[in-house]
Amino acid sequence: MNSPNGFFQKIIHLESRSFSLQIQKFENGYFIALSEGSNKIGSMVVSLATGPTPITTTVIPSKSESLFLKLVAERISTRIRGITLFSSFIEKELTPDVAKDLMSEIMNVIDND
After folding, report:
1. Residue 93 covered by a domain
2. Between helices 66-80 and 96-111, what is the axis angle to 10°?
3. What's the confidence (pLDDT) of residue 5?
4. Is residue 1 pLDDT above 60, yes or no?
5. 95, 19, 33: which is closest to 64 by C-alpha?
6. d(C-alpha 2, C-alpha 112), whole Å
7. Which of 75, 73, 76, 84 is nearest to 29 (CA)?
8. What are 55-59's contacts with CB under 8 Å, separation 24+?
9. Could you tell me the pTM of the whole model?
10. Contacts with 8 (C-beta within 8 Å, 6 or more apart), sequence order
11. Which of 59, 66, 79, 86 is the most buried if burial means most Cβ atoms within 10 Å?
12. Higher local confidence (pLDDT), 14 or 1
């Protein structure tokens, strides 16, 4: 995280689409907001990993990106052995390449923290 207060923000451009990534680090986890276009709260999942498999709950269901939300949240919570809240507002369905690139961008921030 580049900020002393544990907050990271970045605009990601992929396939003529623009995504805003905001990550807030806490002592026991992360809050991650990813939105396409303007900043909006969207679908949300919470994942907690204290044992061998994470426990994930959907707070606000997604119309189309539920697997992406769950995968990102579980991967981060497992890696940090903590809590991840992940909100995603996506205007149109993600292609596999865009989803992969977004996951890589998010994990790079977490891994370099």
Report:
1. yes
2. 20
3. 76
4. no
5. 95
6. 9
7. 84
8. 59/85
9. 0.91
10. 1, 2, 21, 22, 23, 24, 25, 109
11. 86
12. 14
- Whether the per-residue pLDDT at 84 is higher than 90: the answer is yes
pLDDT tens track for 34-66 = 999 899 999 999 999 988 899 999 999 988 888
Contact in structure between 86 and 44 (CB atoms under 8 Å): yes
In which domain, by residue range, is 38 found? 7-111
Report the chain's mean pLDDT, rounded to a whole number: 93
Domain tally, the chain: 1
Q: What one-letter code names the amino acid at 66? A: S
Do the domain assignments include residue 79?
A: yes
Classify residue 105: in a domain, yes or no.
Answer: yes
Strands (E), 27-96: 29-36, 43-48, 55-60, 83-89
Are 78 and 37 a contacting pair, CB within 8 Å?
A: no
- DSSP-derived secondary structure letter, 38: S
> Is the Cβ–Cβ distance between 68 and 88 less than 8 Å?
yes
In this structure, the strands spanning 17-26 and 29-36 are antiparallel
**Contacts of 101 by beta carbon, 8 Å cutoff, 6+ apart:** 12, 14
Whether 24 is covered by a domain: the verdict is yes
